[in-house]
């Protein structure tokens, strides 16, 4: 037998009966807690495009649970504390990222669930914009470092895996990112670098074709000539003759 219990925020505010308490303890609380965990997982993984929908789902579940406004404030603070901590690790702050729209006092002063919901979606929108920009800038920096390394090492037997290791990225991810940022594959870009260098060297008569091949990373002269013809449209010798 369950005793009759009342949840009271203050002396004049009775929030729930024993039935409400049972529903909250075993149903709403568990489901909301699971969604809070999902929110934290998505935020830490950088999947901010899912946070807007997830935040709305949490607010809808809270609305059905008849939770006190104080509890809603606490859950909202917990949700955004995860993101605030993540931004601190990136040497920035949630207040800066949201152009001053975020503060814990703002949350505590909100008077309704709808107000919290609307405010939260605005904050999440600001965060999505920031992280999209951050990703683009980060990707550009990473690819710039990769290109610099390729320019330093193109004369060696360089590979995608070697470059990925140099910039501390998974090879598969790096390959996809490189193509997305440059519009060509790693292999095609490496060939471009080598062929441009070959054309420069062909302008210097002191270099024989078989001498140029190893200087740009090809041990096999015949293979170098084949790649050069595919890239330029003529053999190295024909290219040199055109320069005269």
UniProtKB/TrEMBL annotation:
Alphabetical keyword list: DNA-binding, Transcription, Transcription regulation
Keyword Transcription regulation: yes
HTH araC/xylS-type domain boundaries: 144-242
Any Pfam family hit: HTH_18
Gene3D superfamilies reported for this sequence: Homeodomain-like
InterPro entries according to UniProt: Homeodomain-like_sf (IPR009057), HTH_AraC (IPR018060), Tscrpt_reg_AraC-type_HTH (IPR020449)
Name used for this protein in its record: YesN/AraC family two-component response regulator
Source species: Paenibacillus eucommiae
């Amino acid at each position: 037998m369950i005793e009759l219990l009342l949840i009271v925020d203050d002396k004049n505010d009775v929030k729930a009966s024993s039935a409400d308490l049972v529903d909250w303890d075993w149903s709403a609380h568990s489901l909301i807690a699971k969604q809070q965990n999902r929110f934290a997982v998505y935020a830490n993984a950088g999947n901010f495009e899912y946070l807007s929908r997830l935040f709305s789902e949490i607010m809808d579940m809270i609305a059905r649970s008849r939770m006190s406004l104080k509890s809603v404030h606490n859950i909202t603070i917990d949700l955004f504390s995860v993101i605030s901590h993540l931004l601190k690790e990136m040497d920035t702050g949630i207040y800066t990222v949201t152009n001053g729209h975020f503060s814990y006092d703002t949350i505590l002063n909100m008077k309704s669930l709808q107000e919290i919901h609307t405010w939260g979606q605005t904050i999440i929108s600001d965060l999505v914009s920031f992280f999209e920009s951050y990703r683009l800038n980060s990707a550009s920096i990473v690819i710039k470092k990769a290109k610099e390394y390729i320019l330093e090492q193109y004369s060696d037997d360089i590979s995608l895996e070697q470059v990925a290791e140099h910039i501390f990225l998974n090879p598969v991810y790096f390959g996809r990112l490189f193509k997305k940022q440059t519009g060509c594959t790693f292999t095609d870009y490496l060939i471009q670098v080598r062929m441009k260098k070959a054309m420069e060297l062909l302008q210097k008569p002191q270099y024989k074709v078989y001498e140029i091949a190893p200087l740009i990373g090809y041990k096999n002269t015949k293979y170098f000539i084949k790649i050069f013809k595919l890239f330029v449209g003529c053999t190295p010798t024909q290219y040199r003759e055109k320069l005269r």
